[in-house]
Amino acid sequence: MTSTARPLLNRRLAEFGTTIFAEMSALAASTGAINLGQGFPDTDGPEEIREAAVRALRDGRGNQYPPGPGVPELRTAIADHQRRRYGLAFDPDTEVLVTAGATEAIAASLLALLEPGDEVIALEPYYDSYAACIAMAGAARVPVTLRPDPERARFRLDLDELRDAVTDRTRLLLINTPHNPTGTVLTRAELTAIAELAVERDLLVVTDEVYEHLVFDDAEHVPLATLPGMRERTVTIGSAGKTFSFTGWKVGWVTAAPALVTAVRSAKQFLTYVASGPFQYAVAEALALPDAHFDAFRADLRAKRDLLATGLTQAGFAVFRPAGTYFVTTDIRPLGEHDGLAFCRSLPERAGVVAVPNAVFYDHREAGAPFVRFAFCKRKGVLEEAVNRLKALAV
Fold it and tell me: Domains along the chain?
């Protein structure tokens, strides 16, 4: 018989229930609505990479426990990728760690680097696992809110607010760029200011860069670790899922200085230990694809972004056209709506489309209340049908 003397769930996790993604995906399944809520593609990535995974399975590579830090081929490929793309030199043996997706990389990093009572500054709105991992580490999250800038149709970081949020208890900055859910790509000037603050206040930085290849127009992805003083204090997190459209493979990674990788590995080994054996070999091949692959992938997503953003504008939403990621954030107030959560729960019945309310990614729920996120990593025909359905809202 289960004791009821105290709640079963650890009090640090008491505020976290079922994720919004599970709720909205279940709503899509029960209503038959088009799911533009959860950010997973509805087609697989390159055929040659899928075949590389099949080949690894058949050859018996990765079918048993892979090495704890990741298979050497993938660690080398990650190091090559960072050097080729950004001029960052990492030793694949001591400065690269393979994880079960970026989510585990985030969890292991925060569990390893935080003590109870530490403060973590995160850009709000934030990916929901950030808050849960900070809580599990016994630390306190301090949100700094990205503010909508209607004139530039983007969300903006207030650098003065960021600086004011740092206290003597601040241990770590948790930065996400390109940013989910707003689609903002932090500029070189903004990142330089963040780097200067980190150096001045001797802060660690965990930077979530899983959308590094999904930047559009004139936006530039600048890894924080490339900036002065940041190589030795930054944990950079990457992932294969977003870049190669194999989200179910759960292959992520950490690159950092040896002492940081050792710390993160100490936590990671007691989470999944290892994962995704055969897929690691396939991702190693994927990272070596020619630039033409990344260019074509980005061009395809840019066209889908424009299709959805234009359709949402015609449907009456105020649209923040993203500079990165594969999400569009919208403001529902022009539709006469103010509560994004209620709006998203009613949208499947009203229009046959599922979206995600941004408010669940905020501590300051009122700041995110009117914003709703749509994913455009779907087939063109699916997006066209979703747009046609959403236009009914404007009638």
Answer: 11-45+292-394 (3.90.1150.10), 47-287 (3.40.640.10)
